[in-house]
């Protein structure tokens, strides 16, 4: 069997909570993502692990046997991590990080919350720049690690993690496009557009699509601020474009809707995590890479399946 560690952690939290919804709340993971992992796990094991009851989930006989194994595995994992922490000597340390604005609303806070709970004496310095500046900052040694969208390949950079996210039209809940499962650029071009400057990777992502449209478009404004794009879209002044990353609050509170953009396949932007090629990997940087890789994988898992 090929069972991923994430599946075991989800299973154990469902076991403790007796509910996928409560497990979702505690893990800060979408219920749909946890349900998919559970179904996949049951298929891999070849048996139902929970009875689906009106008042929640209860372990089956197979689930009881599996739970015993999972508890042992997770306890062993914690023991190994503690021993590794002792060997690494991660008690104090400093880390400088370059990130893009769109990650600051939820991704970075969630990442730092987990990292600093584990290593409270580590100091992390964050600086927000455009994706195009991240490559230079990492190559020049201005920061230890960078997180940016769709960076060009470079011999000076080493990509340590990556996740692919769908770019979509950003509109208010009452907008005519909000109820559609997906949109084309032609659908969006019927309305004023809010576009990005070259400092953001979104411009390079959308440029070929706009060029292929071959018809005049009305551009309300161009900006290098994701926050301004969201606020203009929220007021119904035009359509902005971005991934779901950075829209967590607005989506949860029904302020904005993300409608996937097809051209004709889904338009995607890769969020990469980068360090300078050939550099040594101190323990604190290695630990940060571990946490950011897990957070990235969790967000990718919550992406809708469009392909």
Task: Write up this protein.
This protein is α/β, with parallel strands linked by helices and 307 residues long. It folds into 2 domains: 83 residues, Arc Repressor Mutant, subunit A (Orthogonal Bundle); 217 residues, 3-Layer(aba) Sandwich (D-Maltodextrin-Binding Protein, domain 2), CATH 3.40.190. It is built from 11 helices and 13 strands. The strands form 4 sheets. Strands 4-3-5-13-6 form a 5-stranded mixed β-sheet, sandwiched between helices.
Write the layout of secondary structure elements.
Blueprint: H1 5-17, H2 20-27, H3 31-45, E1 50-53, E2 56-59, H4 61-88, E3 93-99, H5 107-118, E4 122-128, H6 131-139, E5 145-149, E6 157-166, E7 168-171, E8 183-184, H7 185-188, E9 193-196, H8 201-213, E10 219-223, H9 226-234, E11 240-242, H10 248-252, E12 257-262, E13 268-276, H11 283-301
Parallel strand pairs: 3-4, 3-5, 8-12, 9-10
Antiparallel strand pairs: 1-2, 5-13, 6-13, 7-11, 7-12
Helix pairs in contact: 1-2, 1-3, 1-4, 5-11
């Amino acid at each position: 069997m090929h069972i991923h560690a994430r599946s075991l952690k989800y299973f154990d939290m469902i076991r403790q909570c007796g509910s996928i919804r409560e497990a979702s709340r505690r893990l800060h993971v979408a219920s749909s993502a946890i349900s998919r992992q559970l179904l996949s796990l049951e298929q891999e094991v070849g048996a139902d692990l929970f009875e689906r009851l009106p008042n929640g989930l209860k372990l089956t006989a197979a689930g009881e046997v599996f739970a015993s194994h999972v508890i042992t595995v997770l306890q062993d994992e914690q023991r190994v991590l503690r021993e590794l922490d002792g060997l690494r000597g991660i008690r104090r340390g400093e880390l400088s990080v370059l990130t893009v604005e769109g990650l600051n609303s939820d991704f970075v806070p969630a990442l730092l919350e987990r990292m600093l709970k584990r290593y409270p004496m580590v100091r992390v310095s964050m600086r927000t720049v455009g994706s195009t500046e991240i490559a230079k900052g990492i190559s020049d040694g201005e920061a230890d690690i960078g997180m940016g969208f769709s960076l060009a390949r470079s011999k000076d950079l080493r990509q340590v993690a990556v996740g692919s996210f769908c770019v979509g039209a950003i509109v208010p809940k009452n907008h005519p496009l909000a109820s559609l499962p997906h949109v084309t650029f032609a659908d969006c071009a019927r309305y004023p557009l809010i576009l990005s400057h070259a400092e953001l990777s979104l411009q390079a992502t959308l440029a070929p699509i706009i060029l292929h449209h071959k018809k005049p478009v009305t551009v309300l404004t161009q900006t290098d601020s994701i926050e301004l794009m969201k606020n203009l879209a929220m007021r119904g002044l035009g359509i902005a474009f971005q991934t779901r990353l950075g829209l967590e609050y607005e989506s949860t509170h029904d302020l904005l809707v993300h409608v996937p953009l097809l051209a004709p396949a889904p338009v995607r932007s890769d969020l990469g995590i980068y360090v300078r090629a050939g550099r040594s990997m101190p323990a604190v940087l290695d630990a940060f890479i571990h946490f950011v890789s897990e957070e990235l994988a969790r967000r990718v898992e919550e992406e809708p399946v469009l392909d």
